[in-house]
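ok so i was messing around last nite and threw this chain in just to see what happens. nothing serious, just curious
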Amino acid sequence: MQRVAVSGASGKTGWRVVEEALQRGMSVRAIMRPESTLPPALAAAERDQRLDVQRLDLNSGEALLHALKGCTALVIATGARPSINLAGPLQVDAAGVQSQVQACRAVGLQRVVLVSSLCAGRWLHPLNLFGLILVWKRLGERWLERSGLDWTVIRPGGLSEDDGRAEAEGVVFTGADQQQNSSIPRRLVARVCLDALESPAASGRIIEITSSPDQPLRSLQQWLEASPVQAGST
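result:
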């Protein structure tokens, strides 16, 4: 059975990735900060030993290596939180991704899906007022692209907490640097990340996603089959 590690598992996107993976019958290892907590349903899954939870500081190299051993894939759902610390995006979205990539290589974990952001790498964007977050997200993407690992970058639009939208909206899929705005529920982002793990054609690609009630329902695999292969780097 595939064992999927999810870093940032207590975050708003991360815990949804964990929940969706469990619903698909996957073996899941949730990686989270020692002080973080899981939603009640996932906390119950941990108590029932249906979910393996590793609490650690991602800056601890040895602890991260231990957490990734035995896993076959990693979804990186870490992200800098709003803070007065303007170095946070550099530390989390660039250096933090680099550390996770290096740990994957060290333990032989090959398949990695990174949750990034629409407009990653763009300088002239309001989000960059928060510590140049889009610039550092693009650097994190590049660390992964150049790692030699089997990678996919998912760039979602504005993230919505409304899970109800996930049942009523279709995903708008494009390649890199083709979308600039619009939103998507975090629940759909989680599902696309897991679909990417199961889709060999998603390897080596940057995939931008938003959603709309006017968009026909279409799976990632269907879009991949219909879209031309593009280079991952931009």
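not much to say yet. The longest strand covers residues 205-212.
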